[in-house]
Specification:
Layout: H1 2-27, H2 46-60, H3 64-80, H4 82-91, H5 95-101
Helix pairs in contact: 2-3, 3-4
Length: 119
């Protein structure tokens, strides 16, 4: 009797994996795998992310150094979690959308920035 259960379990597992992969290929939430899990693919986002921060800088008086720092932090986070960030970031049209939907939330003390400084 155990053989049919194992077969049924394997069939369910294969189906679940296929559905997860299919969602990430185009119709997913933007945070599933499928776009690219390769951290090197994050470099392709550099221009878009920089452009979003430059557009925000015009409204907020952000300095060029702040634009560069924010862009570098997004790319660094992307390299750490490319499956979560890449597809989502490609769809964003503003810094607010990028930061709220694609990146890990910031904590009140700002300690998340320490990871980018190697501390």
């Amino acid at each position: 009797m155990p053989a049919p259960r194992v077969g049924m379990l394997l069939a369910l597992l294969v189906t679940a994996c296929a559905c997860k992969q299919k969602a990430g290929e185009g119709g997913g939430t933007g945070t599933a795998t499928g776009a690219s899990g390769d951290p090197a693919a994050c470099d392709q986002l550099q221009g878009k992310v920089s452009g979003l921060y430059q557009a925000a800088a015009e409204r907020t008086k952000m300095t060029p150094e702040e634009v560069a720092d924010n862009t570098a932090m997004v790319i660094a986070e992307c390299r750490g979690a490319p499956d979560r960030v890449i597809a989502c970031a490609r769809k964003t049209t503003s810094v607010a959308q990028l930061e709220s939907q694609c990146l890990a939330p910031l904590d009140d003390e700002g300690s998340e920035g320490l990871q980018f400084q190697g501390k």
